[in-house]
Specification:
Elements: H1 15-19, H2 26-37, E1 43-47, H3 60-67, E2 72-76, H4 89-96, E3 100-102, E4 107-110, E5 113-118, E6 127-129, E7 135-138, H5 140-166, E8 171-176, H6 189-197, E9 201-204, E10 219-221, E11 224-228
Parallel strand pairs: 1-2, 2-3, 5-8, 8-9, 9-11
Antiparallel strand pairs: 4-5, 6-7, 10-11
Helix pairs in contact: 5-6
Bound molecules: fe (ii) ion (FE2) (2 copies).
One fe (ii) ion binds at residues 49, 78-80, 177, 206.
Length: 243
């Protein structure tokens, strides 16, 4: 599951989280569903946007809440995780081990699978639409900037795959925070990399609200399973990825 967007100590910054019913008491619903569906022998991957906190001290309680959920918790970065500087991942791991694992430029394992991943990135506009709501153009400067971020994230993802491969792993589940494609694309560097290494599944989040749930690939596509796992999409029920 992704996108818990916890805010025990920090300001809520999303209007939909304030007003949309699906977010009401979501912390309690996550706890309840996790207690029902996850045991301490399970591995629970949380794919980013953990907290609204602007720094680590504003996230203490949010991360403690995650620590208290059942299972072995593996966290990847989301776009809102200001507390997590990618270059300081080692410090986070030191601070929270063995209760949480922060995955960045590395991989985790589950049985004979390598769990690989990175935050990812997709171009999100601005798009220009006509009176019928069709996309007729987009901000090209923003698109150029997005390309740079995508290529940096692809490098990080490749590193994750290569480390796993060097350790002898041949079965992969790939985790992203952003969807694997933007709304204009059918495939991307991320779907290509999933195919190159033979990842069986691509798990992503970030899409909130009915109108965003179909922004990218869902279900079987070119031999892989794509799953959206943002918490509000799942109605806060973690989804089983591997038996
Ligand atoms: Fe989010
Ligand atoms: Fe996000």
């Amino acid at each position: 599951m992704g996108d818990l967007h916890l805010h025990f100590q920090s300001m809520l910054k999303s209007p939909e989280q304030l007003h949309d019913r699906v977010w009401k008491n979501h912390e309690e619903r996550v706890q309840k569903n996790c207690a029902k569906l996850i045991t301490d022998e399970d591995t629970f991957v949380l794919v980013g946007d953990h907290s609204w906190g602007r720094n680590l001290s504003e996230c203490d309680q949010d991360l403690e809440y995650i620590c208290a959920l059942p299972g072995r918790k593996i966290l990847t970065r989301g776009n809102h995780d200001m507390f997590w500087d990618a270059k300081k991942t080692a410090q986070l791991n030191e601070r929270y081990q063995p209760r949480l694992t922060f995955l960045q430029d590395s991989f985790a394992t589950y049985q004979d699978y390598a769990l690989v991943g990175t935050k990812g990135f997709t171009f999100e506009g601005p798009f220009y639409i006509d009176s019928r709501g069709r996309i007729v153009g987009w901000d090209e400067e923003a698109e150029e900037h997005a390309k740079k971020l995508v290529s940096r994230e692809l490098e990080r993802l490749r590193k994750s795959f290569e480390l796993a491969k060097a350790d002898g792993y041949r079965k992969y589940v790939m985790f992203l925070h952003y969807p694997p494609t933007n709304i204009l694309e059918e495939r991307s560097g991320f779907t290509d990399m999933a195919e190159e290494y033979g990842a069986e599944q691509v798990i992503y989040a970030h899409c909130h609200g009915e109108c965003r749930f179909h922004d990218s690939i869902l279900g079987e596509y070119r031999g892989r399973m794509y799953r959206l796992v943002s918490g509000d999409y799942l109605k806060w029920k973690p989804v089983r990825v591997l038996e």
